[in-house]
Amino acid sequence: MSNITEFILLGLTQNPGIQTLLFAVLLVVYLITLPGNLLISVAIFTSPVLGSPVYFFLSYLSMIDSFYSSSIVPKLIFDLISGKNTISFSGCMTQVFAEHFVAGAEIVLLIVMAYDCYVAICKPLHYMTVMRFLHGGIQILLMVQLPFCGPNVIDHFMCDLIPLLELACTDTHTLGPLISANSGSLCLLTLLMLVASYVVILCSLRTHSSHRTSLSTCASHVTVVILFFVPCSFLYLRHMISSPIDKTVTVFFTIVIPMLNPLIYTLRNAEVKSVMKLQINSNILEHSLYPAP
User: In which element (H, E) is residue 87 found?
Assistant: First the structure.
């Protein structure tokens, strides 16, 4: 039985000056991440030009990144400015589930995007729903059964698996490998599978000199895959003990990557950039012709 009703998050630092700086930086990052990803989704959904499956999946990747960032960053920003670094037990479990639910969805979507040449539009959606519920559900079931009887201080800026395991007042030597197998092995096996598939794809593209667009899209996807799966494998494919570098890797994994993804895809994709420019210019022209009263 757990008698803990809330957890205390130590955050990234206890230095007030650095906290203020982090608040400003993370607020700017979040204000870039959310509108950037939403703008890509709206541009793709509203443009008849971007109707191919690759753009369909890209729009969902942007939405997933928005949800992923929003499950962590607003709470972190609030804690930095308010100094109230507490989270309820139910809120902590909800954050763990949301983080791994959305991350599981992104893993499946990245796999589907690697095979978007022959995967039907409707099938991956059912597969994504099943897989992300399965991954997130397993993680939360493993967590909620643990007894927490004190202390309740989490040396992290968010609720995650490893810090919670260290607070459980029971033997977690058996549970640790299960969580590592569920999260770490999923990341590593997916990374290896995608790397193998891209080796085949790149070898095929070498014989087709005209496929520059495909090569550019493939290069963008490989970049996103590496940025996502390498930190994921580092965090979870090892002994379930906190490391001083975990916070830095988690910041990159959960905050920086969702901001980088839209930049990586749009800067390398002429069609998306063209559509976004047209929509922005159209909105500016509309407001200039019909100004608000």
Answer: strand 86-88
- Cα Rg of the chain, angstroms: 21
Domain annotation covers residue 93: yes
Integer Cα distance of 107 and 128 in angstroms: 9
For 36, the domain range is 6-289
Length of the chain: 293
Question: Predicted confidence band at 201 (pLDDT cuts at 50, 70, 90)?
Answer: low
If pLDDT is split at 50, 70 and 90, which confidence band does 213 have? low
Residues 6+ apart with CB under 8 A from 22: 12, 13, 80
- Read off the tokens for 229: 């799966």
Task: Judge contact between 222 and 132, C-beta under 8 A.
Answer: no
The domain tally of the chain equals 1
Residue 267, phi then psi, degrees to nearest 5: -70, -20
Q: Is the pLDDT of residue 256 over 80?
A: yes
1 found inside a domain: no
Q: Indicate which CATH number applies to the domain containing 237.
A: 1.20.1070.10
Query: pLDDT tens digit string along 82-97?
Result: 878 899 988 888 888 8
The residues, any chain, with a CB within 8 Å of residue 167's CB and separated by 6 or more, are 4, 7, 148, 151, 152, 153, 154
d(CA 47, CA 212): 23
- Please count the CA atoms within 13 angstroms of the CA of 93 that sit on its side-chain side: 16
Amino acid 45 reads: F
Q: Is the peptide bond before 262 cis (omega within 30 degrees of 0)?
A: no
